[in-house]
Amino acid sequence: MADYLEVRGVHKAYGDYVALDDVSFSAQRGEILALLGPSGCGKTTLLNMIAGFLMPDDGRILVDGHDLSNTPAHRRGMGMVFQGYALFPHMTIARNVAFGLEMRGIERAAIQTRVSEALAAVQLAGVEKRYPRELSGGQQQRVALARALVVRPAVLLLDEPLSNLDAILRKTMREDMRVILKEAGITAILVTHDHEEAIVTADRIILMSRGRVEQIASPMELYERPSTVFCAHFMDFTNLIDGVVVGFENEYATVKTAMGVVCSDVGDVGVGEDVTLAIRPENIAPVPDAGENHVVGRVARISYHGAVQRVDLDVANQTLIAHVPVRRCAVRPGDELAVSWRAAETRLLRRDAAAARVLAAQGGGG
Fold this sequence. Notes:
Elements: E1 3-14, E2 17-28, E3 32-36, H1 43-51, E4 58-63, E5 66-67, E6 78-81, H2 93-103, H3 108-121, H4 137-149, E7 155-159, H5 167-184, E8 188-192, H6 195-201, E9 204-209, E10 212-217, H7 219-224, H8 229-234, E11 239-249, E12 252-257, E13 260-264, E14 274-279, E15 293-304, E16 308-315, E17 318-325, E18 336-341, E19 346-350, H9 353-361
Parallel strand pairs: 3-8, 3-9, 6-7, 7-8
Antiparallel strand pairs: 1-2, 1-4, 4-5, 9-10, 11-12, 11-14, 12-13, 14-19, 15-16, 15-18, 16-17
Helix pairs in contact: 2-3, 2-4, 3-4
């Protein structure tokens, strides 16, 4: 299938500060892409550039083969859903949704039909005569989505559209938003800093850092097989352990670390290379024979997280974090605990000093 949206080598700088550095990607018609990353990574700048609110210093943006790099925003045929909804408080819901069609000179009968169809698509049929203040936050977000969809945009751009909603409503809306977008068959670009939102909503994720693309992958691939230390950290591989590759055996790599020799997946590295091992805490089990890797540590801290408890283990002066189901966590701080995990669930990555500095500057948070 041919690419519908193409971003080719886009660059944007403000003086010495580089906001976007040679960014390239493409999307097929009807595909949902998520631009994911921490604050300051360039994702919103990139979205504004696709919309036409900013012009690139270099590079091209094409939709359906047409170069829009120097086309003003109002001629690009894009739809936009803003973080703050941006509904007109003095207009009814019907007028809010119809506004873009009225500006395009669509005849009244067609407007009424399309407004009704758009509101039905977002499950808000029957609210046409109400005002934004009479709707909940989630309903207002649906109205904003209907207003963007009703004009049948070439590409729909969503700038952190769920960030103003409470946690429970966000989870519901991200599921609903994907269904609505897929049923509409529209190409969409979603900006978010929430990796769970990106995983649930998008067909593919573009993870960004420092104005560059770190990895483009399906949600499952990015979650399970991050390609860099930064990607692993951002996707919640809490355990990042430095080591040196000492050999390969039984289709696994063996890595010498401060807590002993650890078996991992092979990765694109050779013997003697400095590497970082990435291990998800949910893959570490308090069962001695559950995997190829076994260590014994002392419980330093336990914190309750609902279905699981986070157990911080001190292993050779290194911290190893395990997420243990509450019913299986019968230990207390100071206890000795043996844990294990599988080599196949241990991601082997090249050591990245630049990523380490970025993560340290962020305080270790993802």
